[in-house]
Amino acid sequence: MVHRTRNVVQTDDVDVAARALARTHDVLALDVADDGARFRFEETTVASDRLSLESTSSNGTIAGTIRSGRHVVVTWLKSGRGTIGKHRAPIGRPILFHQDAEPFRWISFHLDTLRIDRDVVQTVAAERGGWAPQPLEFKPYHVPEGATLAAWWLMIRTVASEMLQGPATVTPERDAELTVMAAAGLLTAIPHWPVGARNASPARARLARAEAFLLEHAVEDISVDDIADAAGMSVRGLQAAFRRTHEATPLAYLRSIRLQMAQNLLAGAEVESVAEAGRAVGFTHLGRFAAAYEAEFGELPSATLRAARPAR
Questions:
Q1: In terms of pTM, does the model score above 0.70?
Q2: Are 297 and 274 in contact (CB under 8 A)?
């Protein structure tokens, strides 16, 4: 069996916070400052050897240089300000750390971080791209949008829900399944290729072609037959592959992608009405859209938009 360790640190001591971060990260340099106010720091980590999820918040400034090492490390700000290298980290969008040493700075922030075993990422990328497992390059500081961003959040919802609310001990098979799911979600969101082969296609395998077609046409009226034809698969084979990888049928996955896209629009107050959000992601019946949205997220789309407007 695989045990997931859970660790929580809450402190108002900058030295305790620094030691906690040094345990979590491969730190080359680290500076934790209180910015003149009463310092607060909190970090929750749930981890197996191959996959970990961290949530970190502080009202101070934390800066330094870290290495990703044997994990691929992707983080996303939920609030506050931050930079990785010289690039500003956007709110609510994943951004990847380089494998080599890279400076960062977080200011009065709340962020989450996902760490995925690098060997697993390389193996999944090889299966999707049709090449032998090997080191990868990722498009530097790429910020996904639209359907690929929705696919990323859909993966995070599944992985985070199980890691935070699931059992502390799981079978090796389930740990491997969840790690592969996380790797596939990362590879869908961030363009990548084998080192030195920038023009290589990341989606030559049939399932990867099916996913790419679905995401490219996510707001269009497409059928399971259209997806299967684009991938060169039978409908039965496509259904089985999606259940293994996404734990959903292709059309259920497509529906969740559309709903996640709608939530992104509503939560960012990027639309003026619920109807506009529904139409933008391919729903033509407002009542069915609202019901599906509530079933997916536990609130009506109007509530999401209403909460987002003051923030905007």
A1: yes
A2: no
